[in-house]
């Protein structure tokens, strides 16, 4: 028996890396189905810890709990890396009631990082979207709750909210899109990030007592998104987002008169003990210390209207489950496999950006002005030159999950056609589970973006959209109830296999070149008006 075991071990070592990865598929599937922990992890992140707004007490609990789970499962080098951020903020309780002309409890939420308030005042509908609107409302806002959004009309859906990709849908994703470099657009967006600060200052000078915005979705959904989190830059007055239906009712009543009176009770807290957020990182060490590492990540933070389930406890739980599966099945990858749970994605991908600047590359020069928040998000990719750090070549590939709990259907190749046949081979064992598409088009808005921007092979998974964008994303119904367990088990297994394949590949994935400043923009292109 000992001879047989020894012979089997030697044979396994002698197998080519690709053959070893294929041999591991059955173990990954068994562990990822019969012993799955992905929904247990997701339930704790959502029901127990709850919404994880960056630097809030719940975010701190999530950082500590996820790192402890990595350690418990046997991962190595578990640690928290700091991310410069700003103030923490949380909601203890909140209520907005219309008290006249009749009592109505409104569906609402405090806007993130606005201060506490306990007040009763009448509303004024004063749509303000640009600085040029200030003049129209000077002298009219004192003592008022200012409704700054246009009321609009009902937004009736024209298609069903819930969707799974068809073969035709997936085929449409596979198209190469040429990059467009528009430095002026980036500059305009950086300047527009000052808008919230200017609006707050105007309302304060005019004597307003609070402001209200309309939710951008119908269906009594609210989000509470806000972006003024830097120390010394949080708003001066309470802000509330009101459900679209309630907001429009208030506007109609104000139009026919008399204007409604609202009672606002916002018990919110700021948390300033530590202005750093933290990325949570852990590893499965590789057998070849010179081979570098591959990486997978998802953002751990969320907004506060619900429990941040689909966005992005689902992705975080799949990252963690893939790590658990690989450890439990005894994976011994050639390259180290590193797992990251990012902080502050919702405020501008700040956690993954901090990782890039710490480990991979710098952009711009020491004389560039310091940016934070939205300004950093919009302006960073417009800084030149790119200076790779020693760790740049060590990262062989990065894979990201951040589109809800839908089944993984494949990978976006992100304008890197050289990886397409490689990804198709890696996904082949999971074609019968629906994961076989490789689409060359790029995606944006999540934590692979700044890695791509410095020449790292970084990729996002294709996922069935389900009802993510129509009603779940950032909203007050983003709870555990809407997560799809079968899909998340499938996603964890696909991710585990892709990571092991990348870690054991004889050669690293083909890399894009480190970007250089484009020589020119298209002189015949139609200008984009970012102010519309």
What's the β-strand tally? 18
Q: Largest sheet, described in full?
A: 8 strands, mixed
- How helical, in percent, are the residues? 25-40%
Estimate the strand proportion: 15-25%
Number of helices: 16
Largest sheet: spatial strand order: 1-10-12-11-15-18-16-17
N→C terminal distance: 74 Å
- SS-derived structural category: alpha/beta
What gross morphology would you assign?
globular
What does it look like?
The protein is of the alpha/beta class. The protein is about 35% helix and about 20% strand. The chain is built from 16 helices and 18 strands. The strands form 3 sheets. It has an 8-stranded mixed beta sheet with strand order 1-10-12-11-15-18-16-17, sandwiched between helices. An 8-stranded mixed beta sheet has the order 3-2-9-5-6-7-8-4, with helices on one face. Helix 10 (about 310-330) links the parallel strand 11 (about 295-300) and strand 12 (about 335-340). The longest helix has 20 residues, at about 310-330. The chain is globular, with a radius of gyration of 25 Å. Residues about 1-15 have low confidence and may be disordered.
